[in-house]
Batch of 2 targets.
Target 1
Amino acid sequence: MDEFPGALGTSASLALRLGQAIFAVASLLFMCLDIQFYSYTAFCFLVTIMGLVIPWSLTLAMADAFSVFVKRPTRQPGLLSIIITGDWVLSFLSLAASSSTASVSDLLMTSNVSFCTAKSCTRYQLSAAMAFLSCFLSLASSLINLWLLPTA
Amino acid sequence: MDEFPGALGTSASLALRLGQAIFAVASLLFMCLDIQFYSYTAFCFLVTIMGLVIPWSLTLAMADAFSVFVKRPTRQPGLLSIIITGDWVLSFLSLAASSSTASVSDLLMTSNVSFCTAKSCTRYQLSAAMAFLSCFLSLASSLINLWLLPTA
């Protein structure tokens, strides 16, 4: 089972981690650049969670890249459990953050009082969409590693 | 492992299911009674998800009650997988719904334009809190059953 695609230390896992990091960075950029996001709690929450997801995914991407390109380290069940738990918690938190952002931006867009211009509203929504994608990739990593935990 | 508290068919599982159903009903009542919830997408989402959680939890509560009070049926791994998946999907959806509701009600409460009276805003928040509790209980059920799946 060592070469199961998506397990820790394979190239599929590296791709998943890079995808998570890229979507999280995109979400952060859409949210932060030129927009006063700190006036809404939900947007601050999204920025906080994406700020946690990026270092986590990049660290694991580096571990995967080392494992793919240099040499395969021994896989320890304890380490795998920590990674599964972390992925899971982060995917839960990013799901909460992205759904909050999506609903708030939807509310801002449809309400009669114009809180945001059409351009910034679209950027809020794009940010939420990127956060959803990052969340789903994180969940995929967690599920694949959880699946492999009994055979580790 | 048959008597592990919280596994399918034990009295702890019955308590968890009843808790989920009660919190979901409370969330639905806080949201629906006397409030025009259908003017906000997030609130409609919450009502939909809670409407899914209630029959699911009540069905499983009945199965647990049958197992506790009458006789213990044989536990099938296939059935357990379906229940774990269902719990997990519902807990994810209810997490998304409750965080959307919480962020929207927070936004409605703090915005300068008064969208809702203080009483209805508090009720939105209470509804979101109940949905969070239901979500966490659902997650607990899912995790306990997942833990026991390899020994089933």
Target 2
Amino acid sequence: MRRYSLSEKMPIKALEAALNDVISIKLKDQRIFRGRLTRCDVYMNLTLSDAEEIEEDQVRAKYGQLLLRGNNILWIQIPE
Amino acid sequence: MRRYSLSEKMPIKALEAALNDVISIKLKDQRIFRGRLTRCDVYMNLTLSDAEEIEEDQVRAKYGQLLLRGNNILWIQIPE
Amino acid sequence: MRRYSLSEKMPIKALEAALNDVISIKLKDQRIFRGRLTRCDVYMNLTLSDAEEIEEDQVRAKYGQLLLRGNNILWIQIPE
Amino acid sequence: MRRYSLSEKMPIKALEAALNDVISIKLKDQRIFRGRLTRCDVYMNLTLSDAEEIEEDQVRAKYGQLLLRGNNILWIQIPE
Amino acid sequence: MRRYSLSEKMPIKALEAALNDVISIKLKDQRIFRGRLTRCDVYMNLTLSDAEEIEEDQVRAKYGQLLLRGNNILWIQIPE
Amino acid sequence: MRRYSLSEKMPIKALEAALNDVISIKLKDQRIFRGRLTRCDVYMNLTLSDAEEIEEDQVRAKYGQLLLRGNNILWIQIPE
Amino acid sequence: MRRYSLSEKMPIKALEAALNDVISIKLKDQRIFRGRLTRCDVYMNLTLSDAEEIEEDQVRAKYGQLLLRGNNILWIQIPE
């Protein structure tokens, strides 16, 4: 097994590694958003480009650039 | 790809870059507001001028100048 | 465009500038209050004089002096 | 207009000035309490003597001495 | 009027003064507990001995020793 | 009465004293868990071994080792 | 009984010890997720690989890599 430095094993590093990738985010109000991750910080605040709101796998709305507040995020799906 | 400094990649910078632009904000109580961004801080507290409350793409109320508390914000739609 | 100092552009400054003006406040429990702003701090804690609770544009109750806790505030309408 | 020092204009000072006065408090669970303010701190934690719970302007329950947690307070009505 | 030191006027002091007394506590989930106060700290975390859950003035359950988290407390009834 | 040091009177000490004892915990979502306390910290984060979920005094589910987040705990029943 | 150092007895150590193991997590919105723990930090933020959402012991959805925010976690089931 290759060795990781401590910081590489931080969960937030998985988000940073996804910059420029398409991710999905579920908020506390149960809405799901999908878009290309363009910015993120340690509070999980993040911006998406080409952001869409998804409902039952359908696009419900398109927002362009969207800033999401980390403290309302339940989970983030990140490509492996 | 052009290089960014660390601070440029912070999500809050996307908000600061939108000063004087028209943005839309969704609060935790599911209300949506639209207006011209006149002030913001790192907590995502912000002021709008010509603020309107939007419901199903219709203007539901007009408020003039409105101060919104960052900790109640779900997302902010920012022009690209 | 005239230049602002950093602190002038803080959202809380818009509230401080409204001292002695009549403002409206919406709380998280969806109640709306209106009154003359007599005190405020950086947490958006504030006091109103001649405070009224408003429901569908009607005065529902009168409170005299009212202290509102900042952490329950959704938005504040401030005269421009 | 007489001049105030900065600390005099803090909202919490309006509460401190009401020590020994009868105040009313609304909590986040929509219950209203009334009593004589005997202690308070900067977090708006406070104690009342002769505390009563009020419902539609009627006394619903009497509690004697009551300690209320500041973080659950929506508003405090303070005599002018 | 006798003079108090600053710390004596802190609301938490009213709780500390009730050590070994029977107090009642209402939590955010609207449950009421009664018991003898055996420990407390500045966050209003506390332990009760002979703790009972009360519903409409009836004992609904008995718990022996109970540790309650301060951040979920709405109010504490303290003997005068 | 024997004398206590300050730290012995902290509510969290009652939890630490219960290490290896069977305790019951109620969470904010009204679920009750029972198990042997194997670890705890000052935030009331804790681990149980042989953890069970209890509903109306019946075992509803068995979990083995369970880590509970302190900030969601309403109360902890501790053997005296 | 073997002796533990203080840090070994911290609840978060039980999570760290489960790195590369399959764990289950319940969030505040009552959803349950299962997957292989690949990263965690002291706030209980964590990443899962091969993450699945579970409903009544059935797989309801598959997510690949999922980042979960610690502050929304109710409990984590950890293999003993």
